[in-house]
Amino acid sequence: MRAGPFRTIAGIVHFHGAERADKKALCFPPAVEMTYAELDDASRRFSAFLKSRGLSNGDRVAILLPNVPEFVVSYFGAIAGGHVAVPVNYRLSPPEIGYILADCGASTVVTTREQFDKVSGLGESRGVATWVLTDGDAKDAVPFRSTLDREALPAMATSSPEDVAVLLYTSGTTGFPKGAMISHRNTLFNVESCRSTLGYREEDTGLITLPLFHVTGLNSQLVALLACGATVVLQREYNTREMLSLISRHRVTALFLVPAIYKLITLRDDLGEFDLSCVRVAAYGGAPMDPETIRSIRRILPAELHNCYGLTECSSLGTVLPASMALSRSDSVGFPVPGTEAQVRGPSGNALSPGEAGELFLRGPHIVRGYFGLPDKTRAAIRDGWLRTGDIARVDGEGLVTILDRVKDMINRGGEKVYGLEVENVIYAFPGVAEAAVLGIPHPIFGEVPAASVVPMPGAVLDPEAIRGHCRSRLADYKVPVEVRIVDSLPRNPGGKVMKQELKRQWASGPKEEIR
Question: Which one-letter DSSP state was computed for residue 222?
Fold first, then answer.
């Protein structure tokens, strides 16, 4: 069964509100539940509120919230009114949030009282006409509960599938974040990608613990599951024990997590308290998952494991590894999702032969319209429908994609190319390793050489020389880190990405050792 006869994102809850009126759409423990009819009604009431404030088609509505029901209502309500939803990472600093609000020209912001107090007084936020608060009250803000008092709009705004429905801002590891313009068509294509590769279906209950301001939580969980007529359980913020309890109590069948969370699950000694036999799909992405963790998770969860790769710029899923290959090809992120293409190109832009390493390009209906207000950056990233991902990869003769590194993070050791992710995959297989990051550090002869920062699992004691020996047994000598440092944590930006430039600064200011 196809996900549904939708032309627009808002059509999802409108359709199911009629076809599955009494089915549970949303659950926010401990007390909030919404049927599809209730979600559709609340979304259209919120649309009516926005219309009463004078918003026009295409006006931006920023959503600065954690995983709460008001996020979902605001998202579908804004889009139903013909406006553009702008989920914003609430973990950013106030100036960073202010930059995004100013850049997108948000006319309305839905947020908490705490965030309102932090951000509303910034100069960048002066263009915001309406603040809506989900908790507390403020003189210049509207309580969210009052936005639902008016009569629901009888019909959704007329929108084209090609219209921009969402702006999602990239994490901005280099320079200011950019707003990726995601259309209805982009999002609904990703729905079909999730259905065909991950096997989402109407009977599913999905737990969303990844943030909804991220493309995975938003597009490959919330929208994709609701489009299939499934039920969604929201976890406000990640906590492992609470997550396991929610899985057991709500009989969750579909998960999408990062490998670090799966690894944390395998380390717990209280798993016997939770019935996890309900989990059918366990997707992951964002980092490699070592074979031992895969084996351990398979013993804990009776689920199909799928390694996924994607970007904001491809509306979420770009490639998916079939569950049957999760262990045998744990180094790979799988095949391009149906209806799309992947190509590896050399520095001159020529397509490379299977097995050669180069920059990965993607093409298909999932590629976004571009970057909001940045035509030059759009042309640099997307040409003839091909998205330049900025990732170095190989595509083998079968079409399987293996990500090796970010282009900007590749290490050039005297002319020999070292791909950090390839080395990190080897380090992850060493017992007791929780996280690893490989970077290039200066060398007087070779220019730069690989080094590694490694975070141990709780209670583990790691020997740097043992890790180097492990690498020597599995990698060419020039790829072996010249030094391994054991650290408590890796520096990450608010989007969760490891900041390798910050790591390089830490290495430069850290203890100096002779580099061989």
Answer: I
